[in-house]
Amino acid sequence: MLEQQLFNALSLGCVYALFALGFTLVFGVLGVVNLSQGAVFMVGAYAALTAVTRLGFPLWAAIAFAFAFAGVVGMLIDRLVLKPLRARNAPHLIPMIATIGLAIAINSLAQGLFGAENQRFPTEVLPQDSMQIAGVSVTVLELGIILVSFVLMTVLMLTLKKTQLGRALRAIAESPKAARLLGINVDGLFLLTSFVAAGLGGISGVLIGLYSNALFPLMGQPMLHKGIAVIILGGMGDIRGAMLAGLFLGFAEVLSVAYIGSDMRDAVAFGLLFLVLLVRPKGLFGSVQERKV
Amino acid sequence: METRPVNSQQRFARISAIALAAAVSFGAAQAAPIKIGVAEALSGGAAQYGISIRNGFQMAADEINAAGGVNGNKIELVVEDEQGKKDEAINAFKKLIFQDKTLMLFGPTLSNSAAAADPIAQAAKVVVFGTSNTADGITTIGDHVFRNSVTEADVLPVTIKVASRIANIKKVAVMYGNDDVFTKSGYDAFKKALDDQKMPVTTTETFAKGDVDFKAQLTKIKATNPDAIVLSALIAEGAPIMVQARQLGLNVPFIGGNGMNSVKVFDLAKGASDGLWVGSPWSIENRTPANNSFIIAYTKKYSTPPDQFAAQAYDAMHIATEAMKKIKLSGDLAKDREALQAALPNVKWDGATGPFAFRRVTDKAGKPAGYDANQQAIVSTTRGKNYEIEK
């Protein structure tokens, strides 16, 4: 039972981490808490569903489609909403409120287009069977989620640390004005970051939608709440921190169900989170003064 | 679209249509439409129930009107979206009662909203008729509160009894959503029924709305080795719970509450939907003539099979119509509303959900209050792509 619970915790933690990666990337570079990330997550899931059921795409192509579609939505959000606010030097809270409004609008649009009821991917897309590995039941999808979240984290971290692009992004994170003076195409990179972050949100929407078997227009909301907790715990804008904090929340939830009781789950998990923040108010890896990618 | 140029032929058609409508309404000046208020959740999280309910009302009203209406008067539905929220339900009720001056109200969708909004109707002395409120105590609000939704407290003991007899269940694990009035009240009813029937409970686990992973709870349940899992959940969480249980090799039957009684389970838990026991006043497999014609007409009209919520709304409209046929509308709204309240309790109806009558309930002080449904539950279990009736 313990092995199974540890595996449950790992896969749940990766579900949270997967969502948090794109979320924290936007904050790291743009300095915006983008609360439409939950809606973008849902858009990705429905884009893949449409690609599979209406256009007959295989799953891998549907995931790529979801990445691109959600990415474009993210770019539009940046161009149409965040950029005008940046241009007017709007204070921090304004883009946050604007993205809440966007999220509501996108959710309502999805409800109008797809209906309020739950939908799911056809079973043919992905086998539901589980296999036994050393007495632990494991599904292909759980392995996929774990793998994808670790790979994405590694790729993002390497890109930010080792490449010219990453250096430019970190420069923007320090100061967009100084970066512009250095000849960095700040607007282009804001757009690129929005595309990638929203695309990652879209992919996590597909994977989590496949995992939970339930797509509905408000599916991003509960995930958004957990995601906010995760990126705060990880240190706002920190990729490695988001991954670790996602795992932390997953383990805290599963182990509190296993050993304390499921009605105490959120109290224990978020109590622990609170305690960590008391000791490390900047989160596991974050630094509040200087924004960090 | 409205500004496109209209050719003369179309214009002529429009003018004659208007003239015709004017003539008809003039000729039938005596037969004013009867306004019926409908406040249901047409958007938000409960919309999948609210839309079914609205469809059920609309179909019944269309049928009644096509057959000549209520003593010659057509029924006119005034539909408000209460979004599944308490404050919106209160607003919708106020609008329908005081502004639209409807004869009576149907709704709201959720028990939560009913507990908040029904007192408004009671105070205004207007009949409020719930078709989907199954939580305890809704009808104790007062004598103008009616419902034809069979409460969980009536259904669940029958479900457990039949399931445990047929599937030989000796001990159960319980799982429920603890942040939702509906699933929590279902849990309370389950708990009482399990206590009454002296059924041992191995463990009780909870989850929250929007959870996607239930394996921690299910792994724990599996370790306690129950014969069945009693589940009070909405289908959004219930279906993934069934799928994930099977993935963990937990192959015992599920005994579900009202929220699990939906044909959606065959889609959302495809491949893992067998062995779910539910009790309900309505079943798509219960092919009585009245139910059969309802199912066929609904499927044709909305290109989706009906669910329990549509069936109960459909019957409720017919039940209310029976009462309206018995009273003579005076045109004095307050008097007509009271006459309807007096006539409604005596209606008996045999519709899509089977033989139906009202049963008076008493409030906490023992005083007679509103009216619950007096109806027999049907227990069925899922096999393949169908609910099979077991009783």
Task: Explain what this protein looks like in three dimensions.
The complex is a heterodimer of chains A (293) and B (391). Chain A has 11 helices and 2 strands; from the N terminus they run ααααββααααααα. Chain A is mainly alpha-helical and 293 residues long. Chain A has one domain: ABC transporter involved in vitamin B12 uptake, BtuC, CATH 1.10.3470. In chain A, a hairpin with a 2-residue loop joins strand 1 (130-133) and strand 2 (136-139). Chain B folds into 2 domains: 34-150 and 287-376, Rossmann fold; 153-280, 3-Layer(aba) Sandwich (Rossmann fold). The model of chain B is unreliable at 1-6 and 22-29 (pLDDT under 50). Classes of the chains: A mainly alpha (293), B alpha/beta (391). Chain A binds chain B through residues 1, 4-5, 8-9, 11-12, 15, 108, 111, 115-120, 123, 128-130, 137, 139, 208, 211-214, 216, 218-219, 221-223, 253-254, 257-258, 262-263, 265-266, and chain B through 43-45, 47-48, 51, 178, 205-213, 215-217, 219-220, 222-223, 235-237, 239-240, 243, 246-249, 264, 267-272.
Shape of chain A: globular
Portion in helices of chain B: 40-55%
Q: Can you tell me the CATH architecture of the largest domain in chain B?
A: 3-Layer(aba) Sandwich
Largest sheet of chain A: 2 strands, antiparallel
Oligomer: heterodimer
Strand order of the largest sheet of chain B: 7-6-8-9-10-14-15
Largest protein interface, residues of each chain: A-B, 41 and 40 residues
CATH class of chain A: Mainly Alpha
CATH architecture of chain A: Orthogonal Bundle
- Detail the poorly predicted runs of chain B: 1-6, 22-29
Number of helices of chain A: 11
The number of domains of chain A is: 1
For the largest sheet of chain A, list the strands in their spatial order: 1-2
CATH superfamily of the largest domain in chain B: Response regulator
Radius of gyration of chain B: 23 Å
Shape, principal axes of CA atoms of chain B = globular
Strand content of chain A: under 5%
How many β-strands of chain B, per DSSP? 15
